[in-house]
Amino acid sequence: MDMVLEICNLCKSYGEFSLRDINMSLEKGTLTGFIGPNGAGKTTTIKSILNIIKPDDGKITVLGMDSINSDLEIKSKLGIVLDDGHFYEDLTLRKMKNLIAPMYPTWDDNAYNFYIKKFELPESKKIKDLSRGMRMKYALVLSLSHGADLFILDEPTSGLDPLVRSELIEILKDIVFEGNRTVLMSTHITSDLDKIADYLYFIYDGKIILKGQKDEIKDQHAIVKGDTAVLLPDYKNYFVGINKSSYGFEGLTDNKAALKNVLPDKTVYEVPSIEDILLYYTRRFK
């Protein structure tokens, strides 16, 4: 198995917040969703991967290289799309490209021209005049033009309207499928990951509390609905969380197979969305 990113026991403390023993592996040619509520530790983890902040403990290997000792070589092979940009606002897209291209020995002008046209980006326009969606596309164009192997995206679809978000999701699918590239996508918009993620890591309060293949996680869990009268005395052992009312109950189980053996057939089981799973686990740990 070809691992593009490996994080081992990453720790970082900021005052009252601590990132604790983060372990993560990204397989080549996959898209991994990194999810969790605001303040859970997603951005701290990403900045540690990028060597923007120094961890207190742990080891990070990117593309087979140590993240600290091989910082420049690693960054030449990364496609980085951060929520806050990092472009010179008064430059046009063409001038920004001319500034960036010489930094990469693998820069390919043909690839740049191809993607600029494909994503319909106006080269004569200034960065400050681009919509958020165009900024995201432009960052991807630059990454694709220097042959990035690993794309790290921090909230790339946040603040986009549904049509632009859908377009960006299709672009990300193509990036992985066509080039056998790897994507780590940090986001709180979990519906996007329902469509494209291969793997999920769920971080809460500085710790990874759930991880695995997306389809396996969804298959293991279920939204369960039924009459409260059928609940067993030890029902909490079968649920991540449960809501009861005069109309019945609804809950999330993390052991669908076991629960089906003890509850009546008339109980309803539904496939949960990633958002369902995120919300129930977040409530559980509060």
From TrEMBL:
**Which Pfam families is this protein grouped with?**
ABC_tran
Q: Does the keyword Transport apply?
A: yes
CDD domains associated with the record:
ABC_DR_subfamily_A (cd03230)
Q: Which SUPFAM superfamilies match?
A: P-loop containing nucleoside triphosphate hydrolases (SSF52540)
UniProt cross-references to SMART domains, sorted A to Z: AAA (SM00382)
Give GO terms: molecular function aspect only. Answer: ATP binding; ATP hydrolysis activity
UniProt KW Zinc keyword? no
Extract the PROSITE patterns matched here.
Answer: ABC_TRANSPORTER_2
> What InterPro entries is this protein classified in?
AAA+_ATPase (IPR003593), ABC_transporter-like_ATP-bd (IPR003439), ABC_Transporter_VariousFunc (IPR051782), P-loop_NTPase (IPR027417)
Origin: domain of life: Bacteria
Specify the protein name: ATP-binding cassette domain-containing protein
Q: Which organism is it from?
A: Alkalibaculum sporogenes
Q: What is the lineage of its organism?
A: Bacteria, Bacillati, Bacillota, Clostridia, Eubacteriales
